[in-house]
């Protein structure tokens, strides 16, 4: 193809080619010629549609400068989740990353502790009590908007604040729950017990949100989380070997059933009182 | 600022690999016009052509390393552009870059065809039936594979092959 061209398209032919008025077969030979002839390519520049070329370049620049959409966000959008929701999920990646790092670290510590104690019952108990504190912390931080790096966005958003906060809480809780679930399956021993933390997690988070519609979320989360841990400590105190876990009411079948009820009730309250979270926003000290 | 004409296409692409926006704009100024004109001949909807042009240069910006240095940059660009146009027309996932060079490998016979003068080729092509011209255009001139040409022309691959052999026969006779 690098053969030296012996002829060049005449200005008339090029003008007709650019205007689209050249016959089909003549146009085909210009097509072929342009591929190998830089001077005829250059000669066509002033004949090409200048406005469209400029507009296309501007569009290309815009696309180059546009923020790259992560594969995870594209996946969610393909699942027909509206863009305003996906944007909210991914608007503060650093905050989310910090959370995930913290959670993974906590889980690693729990697994390590379990390993060091050879899968002992007390290590398992510590894991089961500790795991529900993770979602509690997430809910507390997300809904206590003064610590939210995207607070100004939340306040200025036309989306109801409650929906916004819920979406952002779910964005952290989703991966966190999956990670914790994975961790709980890796923790040695006590096969049936490893998922007992799941219902307390839901119950604590939901109850915090429900009460948080009247009271400051952060205070509520401290009180409930504290009560949960205190209850565990009291229950474990003096427990005979082999029944540390079973002694804590929350881990017994009746306790787990009660937690289902608590979660459902709290969820009901939260939905009923969702407007309160908008009030929390507008009442915030300026 | 270095003048556009001072840098070869290959140099511009190498600079684009290093995220040089000026080199990218130079490459666009040099190749955008003829690509736009040529694509416009293939598709009457100018919005579709504009979209294909944008996609083409986005591909150049995101993967300038896809140019392996074999063959002319212009031919490489055309290979991308015509496939982006097909994508736009068919609303299908992008054809892989790898097909680009393979599609542009011309047989010795085709090279003769492309190398011959303007008047001769035009006269030879003129004698072909319109459906044969379309196949020659898609495969020989546009560098599409049989399958891509079939998709573009919306005919079976076998038909592309049989029309192409008929066209070769007739062209050989006309140019002999």
- Number of H/I helices of chain B: 10
Q: Which overall shape of chain A is indicated by the principal axes computed on the Cα atoms?
A: elongated
> What is the beta-strand fraction of chain B?
under 5%
As a percent range, the share of strand residues of chain A is under 5%
Distance between the amino and carboxyl termini of chain A: 72 Å
Structural overview:
By secondary structure, chain A is an all-alpha fold. Chain A is built from 16 helices and no strands. Chain A has helices at 11-19, 24-36, 38-44, 50-65, 71-78, 83-90, 93-116, 121-130, 133-143, 151-156, 161-186, 198-212, 217-236, 244-247, 253-272, 275-282. In chain A, α7 (93-116) packs antiparallel against α8 (121-130) and α9 (133-143) runs parallel beside α12. The N and C termini of chain A lie far apart (72 Å). By secondary structure, chain B is an all-alpha fold. Chain B is 73% helix and 0% strand. In chain B, α1 crosses α2. The longest helix of chain B has 22 residues, at 21-42. The relative contact order of chain B is 0.09. The interface between A and B is large, with 41 and 43 residues.
């Amino acid at each position: 193809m690098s053969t030296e061209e012996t002829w060049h398209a005449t200005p008339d032919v090029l003008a007709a080619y650019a205007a689209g008025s050249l016959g089909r077969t003549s146009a085909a030979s210009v097509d072929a010629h342009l591929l190998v002839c830089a001077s005829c390519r250059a000669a066509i520049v002033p004949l090409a549609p200048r406005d469209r070329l400029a507009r296309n370049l501007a569009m290309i620049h815009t696309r180059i400068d546009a923020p790259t959409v992560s594969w995870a966000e594209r996946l969610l959008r393909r699942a027909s989740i509206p863009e305003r929701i996906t944007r909210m999920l991914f608007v503060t990646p650093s905050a989310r990353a910090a959370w995930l790092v913290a959670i993974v670290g906590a889980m690693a510590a729990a697994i390590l502790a379990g390993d060091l104690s050879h899968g002992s019952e007390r290590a398992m108990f510590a894991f089961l009590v500790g795991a529900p504190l993770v979602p509690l912390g997430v809910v507390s931080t997300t809904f206590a908007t003064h610590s939210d790096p995207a607070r100004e966005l939340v306040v200025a958003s036309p989306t109801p604040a409650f929906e916004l906060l819920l979406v952002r809480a779910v964005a952290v809780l989703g991966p966190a729950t999956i990670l914790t679930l994975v961790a709980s399956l890796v923790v040695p021993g006590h096969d049936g017990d490893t998922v007992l933390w799941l219902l307390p997690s839901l119950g604590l988070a939901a109850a915090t949100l429900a009460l948080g519609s009247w009271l400051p979320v952060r205070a509520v989360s401290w009180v409930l989380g504290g009560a949960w841990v205190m209850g565990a400590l009291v229950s474990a105190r003096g427990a005979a070997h082999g029944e540390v876990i079973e002694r804590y009411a929350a881990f017994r079948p009746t306790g787990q059933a009660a937690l289902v009820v608590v979660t459902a009730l709290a969820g009901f309250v939260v939905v009923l009182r969702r407007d309160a979270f908008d009030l929390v926003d507008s009442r915030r000290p300026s | 600022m270095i003048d556009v004409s001072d840098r070869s296409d290959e140099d511009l692409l190498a600079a684009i690999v290093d995220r040089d926006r000026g080199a990218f704009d130079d490459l666009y100024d040099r190749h955008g016009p003829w690509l736009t004109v040529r694509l416009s001949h293939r598709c009457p909807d100018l919005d579709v052509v504009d979209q294909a042009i944008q996609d083409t240069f986005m591909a150049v910006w995101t993967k300038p390393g896809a140019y392996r240095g074999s063959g002319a940059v212009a031919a490489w660009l055309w290979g991308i552009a015509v496939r982006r146009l097909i994508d736009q027309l068919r609303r299908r996932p992008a054809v892989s870059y790898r097909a680009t060079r393979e599609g542009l490998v011309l047989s010795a016979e085709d090279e003769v065809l492309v190398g011959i003068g303007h008047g001769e080729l035009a006269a030879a092509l003129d004698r072909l039936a319109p459906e044969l011209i379309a196949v020659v255009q898609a495969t020989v001139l546009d560098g599409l594979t049989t399958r891509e040409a079939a998709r573009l022309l919306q005919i079976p691959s076998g038909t592309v092959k049989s029309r192409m052999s008929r066209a070769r026969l007739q062209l050989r006779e006309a140019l002999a």
